Structure formats: structure tokens, C-alpha cells
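Holo prediction. Input below; ligand is guanosine-5'-diphosphate.
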Amino acid sequence: ETLTVNGLAEKLHKDVSEIIKKLMFLGIMATKNQDLDDDAVELICSDYNVTVEKEIILEDTDFDKYRKEDDEQDLIERPAVVTIMGHVDHGKTTLLDSIRHTKVTAGEAGGITQHIGAYQAENDGKKVTFLDTPGHEAFTSMRSRGAQITDIAILVVAADDGVMPQTVEAINHAKAAEVPIIVAVNKMDKETANPDRVMQELTEYQLIPEDWGGSTIFVPISAIKGEGIDELLEMILLVAEMEELKANPNKAAFGTVIDAQLDRGRGAVASLLVQDGTLSVGDSIVVGNTFGRVRAMVNDLGQRIDKAEPSTPVEITGLNAVPQAGDQFLVFTDERKARQIGETRQQQHIVESRGSQAKISLDDLFEQIKQGEMKDLNVIIKADVQGSAEALAASLRKIEVENVQINIIHTGVGAITESDVILASASNAVVIGFNVRPDVNAQKAAESEKVDLRLHRVIYKAIEEMEAAMKGLLDPEY
Ligand code: GDP
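Structure of the complex:
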């Protein structure tokens, strides 16, 4: 906001004529309703020994405010973005490598594969984008920051090992995010491979093959031998088509940070996934709480490019600071606007340190229910044995409180882990531990993410507490 001579006089509690005289001394002929520039204000104030603190213009920093709705006719098909999940040692990394080797034509294009957080593979001339970090932790930690980038999850299950705890976690994380799952039954080359057992075990989680009357796609593969990779890609393309993944390449780019770090020579380097629009070199961009202009752009083959369309991963330089994975970015056609919004976001970020966003807690649950904000109460249960987890889940589902539904989004055996807390944070859930405790990392994460952990040793106490919280009868904790 600019200040008039009159306005300045009022702020300084001085006579307008006095200010006008001082301005004349400075060679500025001004009337009382004239706007003063910052320098003039500064000079006058220093004359009165008053220091000027410029008010930061609080731009609306919500990207949604600046993104326009698309006309249906402007939307075109875009490649699917895929995350590979599954239990440790079931072959996620091997599969990512195998796809990269067989389906990325690095040699032909004259490039060398570059690890920028994601890569694009090609099958029958159609592209698929794979996120390079396997596992549900990265997936869900991004989601807890408001970013949803995965369109399809590949659930890798080793045929010689079957469904394991992290398989179940992965299923629940994908389901919570409403992402379709394709099952890759891996290690089919092994003599002990038993794909039927895998299919049987997965029916318990509503992943039922088409032959058995379900709708889940199962693809037998051997990641290590590169067998079944073509079929897997075909299935991904099929699901992508059903999902009708579209974007509008003819507008300012929007997307998410997959990875970022400080490079000694190049400054802040960020790997971005363009989700909509086209990102170009020279664009003015706000990335999370950082901003700048896209100085250089490199693709997953290490080639310099100057344009990146939807679903393309790129690495860029030119930001004023290092953003965080999961941050969203938006391009602004007006460079000044980008700077203002970037600066405001930076300020806001300093004020409200990350993670302080209020999450659901049993103590204020009733308030939220009363205000009609809470229709689904998401709960994660960890217990010492599966039987207790199930018993507790069954009892909780039976609690009846007007208009509120309890959703058990995950149950598991063992200590409460960081992954549980991140899932809770992303899904705005409460974690109940029955005869188990959070490990150190989970405790830390719960504090920073403000996730409510409730520990119990007696089932009916856990149920009683939940019921009381929903009815607003909980004794306040001190
Ligand atoms: P991740 O922990 O899920 O990423 O699993 P890795 O990709 O690191 O694989 C774990 C182990 O399984 C490694 O020793 C791999 O060589 C092996 N492995 C992965 N895929 C296959 C496969 O298709 N067949 C066989 N026999 N071994 C595999």
C-alpha cells in the first residue's frame, strides 16, 4: 500500500504543511493527497528519527486461488504416475531397475540415466512415470503434506513369501489414498514360488483376481529376469486408461517436489513432477516456501530440456532456497506476483513452523462432531497380537454416535511406528496402541505432526474412552 503525504503526516503526528516543506527541501513538490514512494517516506521518517518497517503485503498464498478450471476440450491424456510398494526384500528396487533397463531408451536418446526421483518408461509408444522411491513411507509422507501424486500403486508380493506385514501396510496406505492397486506377484522364477497362495491371502484384503470374481489385476513377474515386465506395463496402461488421467498442457505449470537438495555449485536443486500445464525454462515459479526462475531444466536422461509437459519429472535450478519433498509448485506469468507470493509464503512459513496444523485429537473430537466437521473418525490400531487388534476394531465399529462413522483404516501387530504416525497424519486419524508403545521415531513424529496416540492395556477402557470422546464426556487431561 502506498502512503499519501497526508497519511504520512498523520502517522508521524505532524502537521501536513511541515511535511510538505521537508519534501520541498528534498526537491519533491507534493500536494497533500499525493502518493509518496518508499524512498521519500524513508527520508522524511529518518529526519524525525523514526524507523520505517515496511508492512509485508499479505498476498493470498493459496495456489488454488490462482489455478483456473479447465474446459473439458483443453484436457488431453497424460501418463500415469506409479509408485511401487510392498514388503521389504520382495523386489521393489529390483523391479524399478528392471523396468528402467528394459523400457528406458537411454542409449538411443544419447543420455545416461540420471536419478532425479522419478523416470519415464515407454511401452508401445505410451509413457508411464515411475517414482524412484519405493515403499509407502515416501508416498504417505507426501500425502500428509497435501500432495497426491500417485495414480496407480504396484503392490509387489514375493511368490515364495506371500503377504507380510508391510504388504498389508502398503494396501492400507494405497486404499486410504484411494489409489488403484495392481498386484505384481514377483520371484516367479523361484522353485518355491506359490502364486495361488498370494492370491488366496490377498482376498482377505479385498484384492480378488478377475478369475475369482473380483476386479484386481495380478501380473506374475520375475523382476530379476525381466519377465512379465511388458505385461505389467500393459496393465498399467490399461488401468491408466480406465482412470482417464488428463491434464491441460497449455497453461502455467503446477506440480509437486519429489526431492530437493543444496548443490555446492548449482545452488538449490529440486526434482519436480509436473502434474498439470507445461513448465518452461525462464518461468517464474513459487515452490513451497521458495521461489525463483527456472534457470535450467534436466530430464531423467540427463538431457537439457526447455519444456516439460504433464507427468514429466524434471530437475531444475534457480530457486532462492531448498524446498521440501511434497511441497507444491505453481508458475506465475507475472514475475512480480511470483516474488510477492513467494516472499509471503516464506514469511508465513517462519511464523507457523511446519506441522503445527491442528490434527484430530480425542480431546476436541466432540467439538468437531458438534460443528458437523467430523463425519468419519479414522482410527489406526496397533496391538501386541492380531486377535486383540481385531477384537478392538470390531468393538469400535459398533459404537453408535449420531452421524459419525468410525473407520478403521489400518490395524497391525507390533509397536507404533513412524509409518503409522505418518499414515495417521495424512488421514487425520487417531492411533490406538493396545499393549504396545510407540518407538522413539514414532514418538517424535507424533509430536511434530500433532497426532494423538492413545495407549491402553484393557480393551473395554479403549472402547469406553472412544465412546466418551465422541459423546463429549471425556475428562480433560492435565
Ligand atoms: P526391496 O527391498 O523390495 O526393494 O527388494 P530388492 O529389490 O532389494 O530385492 C530383495 C532381494 O530379492 C534381492 O536379493 C533381489 O536380488 C531378490 N529378487 C528380487 N526380485 C527377484 C526375482 O524376481 N527373483 C528372484 N529369484 N530374486 C529376486
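The chain has 15 helices and 22 strands. That is the main takeaway for now.
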